[in-house]
Inverse folding.
DNA sequence: CATGAATGAGCCTTCATTCAT
DNA sequence: AATGAATGAAGGCTCATTCAT
């Protein structure tokens, strides 16, 4: 229990520091100091800086958002609406937004991240298409891809400029 | 002329190396070796590694694609079609695809990149909307955003899976 | 009794690990794991890693061989023969052979080891000379030194190449 | 030319520092400071600390002594005498004596050193036997081994205690 | 323009040692 | 006695940058 707390504290500190400095400019020293532990302890919980990067990068992807929405058993517009809502909520934080694009940018160098992204793009995309439309074909798949692309692009820009609800309803209207 | 050749050779080597290793894991040594010049010479053409990163990152964004299409004076569907075509062509190369997401990921740390991205998202997006639809309102702006998001998402995944032409026509159909 | 068992288990593990990795590349972690105890426990029995190194190094020297032969009250060729036999037996193990040269190599840094080696070279060498020849003079001392040198050199090389018995009888014949 | 000088300066500093502290307790920092160069430069000439250790260890073995004596075309007692003289001269320095045993102690961990020692023990030993006795058989080989063992043992102890010339002549007399 | 030796700051990682439990 | 989380001091190594040639 205590053990999980410390590990969690380190990961959260890492997310904060990595978001600000970038995975590679950030140092373990900074992470440790932010977490309030010694540098050595970081290496007790994570074999290497890379392992910590992978942990943070995984959490930065929208995988959890989509999985959780699928698990709720939602269908049709409801599902897409919920995904969009939670997606935009997650990436309303500057921290998460920065981490998302960093995670995407290392997928070729970090196989572990590459696999997660593939899982997201392939497996989950198909499941979403099925639940949203009742069936899957190339057309539906493209629509979901556009849907996710629209969300991704929104996470890229300055969120404030467009009212999220308007944006969501517009996206869903368009791809229906 | 010779001068431009060497500079260009260095930038191209940098793109190759940066794409493979990442901006921060790649070293100037590797760039120099790939370009077939000495390490010192890289610093003759670029004051610092950061300057080289910025140069490469700028080229990795789709700014040139959109600018060139706008300059051609295209309008309506024609414009969107041409942008999509050239966009997908540019990012059909693994190298460019990797560099694109790296460029996006450093926008907070590199103001120069941040400015380029803002320019892309704000200025150009509006111009595209105007040329494509004849006028700009919040609705049109969102549509173009979705359009670009769809292209971005396509650059993220394995390009091969979907036929580009189908994808393009589908996107354009949807956002019309 | 239990206490001695654990201590002994640790020393034996240390000999194994130290022989393989070297005194300074080996870690207490590896020793503990090999001994099947926790790292903390090693420090319960040995105040420091150095203390453990000294313990292992002492055991690795041929002091015990020579002492035990002297204690048996042997004289003349008998004594030399017995020393040679037990010496070669002890260092027929790869582990002991590696540890012997490591022990010799740290004598300047570890006074405790230096003292043991001095004891071996001076005190015992004289005693052996006396028991072997009945009296000690510079000539006899040199002969014993050559005798021990021959044994040391044998421990250095690939033991298998020469038949130990032949080697022993040849050495003793020569220095008589 | 300059390049060789710097490299040489580093190796000499390393020999000094390694002799005093031991290969593994010595730091590259200390070597660099002793050589009067920056730490980084050490890694310009040697890819790693290990590479430097191997270089130093090789020089610490008596290979050069034996090779040079063989190259002089000496035979019989002359050869053995010369080898003994140069051997004892080389290891009259505390530095070389300490380094010799360190070099011997790492032969299992450093294949490069192991190979050198094998070369010494096998190839050269045979050549010495041939030049010294005119022919090689198991008996002659053992004698040379004893000869080298006597020299090694001398390098181990406090050199001063016995007059080198007496020792040398005694060894050669005995193994003839 | 061009080279590559030289520098030095800084980072990841290791590991002996301590200590609360 | 026994454990293993926690610490912190180093150390090896990298690499951007400079500069004499």
């Amino acid at each position: 229990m205590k053990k999980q707390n410390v590990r969690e504290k380190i990961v959260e500190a890492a997310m904060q520091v990595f978001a600000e400095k970038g995975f590679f400019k950030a140092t373990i020293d900074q992470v440790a100091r932010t977490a309030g532990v010694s540098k050595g302890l970081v290496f007790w919980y994570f074999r290497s800086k890379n392992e910590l990067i992978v942990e943070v990068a995984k959490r930065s992807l929208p995988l959890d958002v989509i999985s959780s929405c699928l698990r709720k058993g939602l269908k049709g517009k409801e599902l897409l609406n919920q995904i969009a809502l939670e997606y935009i909520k997650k990436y309303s934080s500057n921290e998460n937004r920065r981490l998302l694009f960093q995670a995407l940018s290392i997928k070729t160098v970090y196989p572990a991240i590459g696999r997660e992204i593939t899982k997201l793009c392939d497996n989950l995309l198909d499941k979403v298409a099925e639940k949203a439309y009742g069936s899957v074909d190339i057309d539906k798949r493209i629509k979901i891809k556009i849907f996710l692309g629209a969300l991704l692009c929104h996470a890229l820009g300055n969120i404030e400029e467009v009212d999220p609800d308007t944006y969501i309803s517009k996206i869903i209207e368009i791809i229906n």
Q: What stands out?
A: The two ends of chain D are 46 Å apart (CA to CA).
